Amino acid sequence: EEQEEDVLRELRLFLRNITERLSLDRRFKAFTKPVDIEEVPDYLMVIKKPMDLSTLLTNIDEHKYITIGEFMADADLIWKNALEYNPDSDPMDRNIRHRACALKDTVRAIIRDELDEDFERVCEEIRESR
Ligand SMILES: CC(=O)c1nc(NC(=O)[C@H]2CNCCN2)sc1-c1cc(O)cc(O)c1
Fold it and tell me: How far apart are CA 38 and CA 43, in angstroms?
C-alpha cells in the first residue's frame, strides 16, 4: 500500500545517494562504467556477472532492490569481480585489487554508519510479503 511505496522510495533515495558518492570517488573510476570489452577482450570469459556503479543506478531506478541486502549483493559483485579478474602480482592487478578492497570497505562503512536497522527491517518485511 501507500506506506510501503513511501518506504521503498526512501530506500531508492538512500541507495542512489550511496552509489553517486562512490561514483564521485576517484579511487573507484574503473568501477563507474561496464568494463569495455574492447579494452579487456577476455573479460566476459572470466567474469560471469559483470557489475558497475552506473548499472547499480539503473537497477535502483528500475526498482530492482527492495532491501539493502539485494543492493549489497550487486555492489559486492563489483569488487569481487575485480579481485577475480586481477589475481596476479602485476602492478596493475595490485592497483585494481587495492581499489576493490577500498570499495568493499567503503560500502560497508557507509551502510553501518547511515542505515537505520529499523528501516532495513521494514524493507525486509515488505520483501517477505511479496
Ligand atoms: C575494472 C577491472 O577489473 C579492470 N581490470 C583490469 N586489469 C588489467 O588490465 C590487468 C589484468 N591482468 C593483467 C594485467 N592487466 S583493467 C580494468 C579496467 C579498468 C578501467 O579503468 C576500465 C575498464 O573497463 C576495465
Answer: 10
